[in-house]
Amino acid sequence: METLRLVLLFVHILGFAALLGGLLVQLRTEPKVVNSLMRDGAGTAFLAGLLLVGVLEGLDGDGPDHAKIAVKFAIGLVILVLVMANMRKPSIPQGLYYGILALTVANIAVAVFWSPAHA
Question: Per residue, what are the HEC states of the chain?
Fold first, then answer.
């Protein structure tokens, strides 16, 4: 189970790397678009995250922090919906682009900085 957890965590991180890379690659270009890296990264990160929570629930111990998981799930779902809804458009507004970028960075920040309380 531990190996599966590590593989899913790795895939989850790769998904966010692809999403962030797809956003950053067009930081200084116009027009902004939802590219395949963003689509694939958002989908991979979301699905791997769901599977990872399932594996974490099955492991011995306290399990995942459900509040943190809920926040990450909500942000990830919004990112996924925004990306998928704008896939076929020839361009997206600057505000939407920066909104997706901010949500992506926020989701990564939640993962890194929201750690369980230490006794």
Answer: CHHHHHHHHHHHHHHHHHHHHHHHCCCCCCCECCCHHHHHHHHHHHHHHHHHHHHHHHCCCCCCCHHHHHHHHHHHHHHHHHHHHCCCCCCECHHHHHHHHHHHHHHHHHHHHCCCCCC
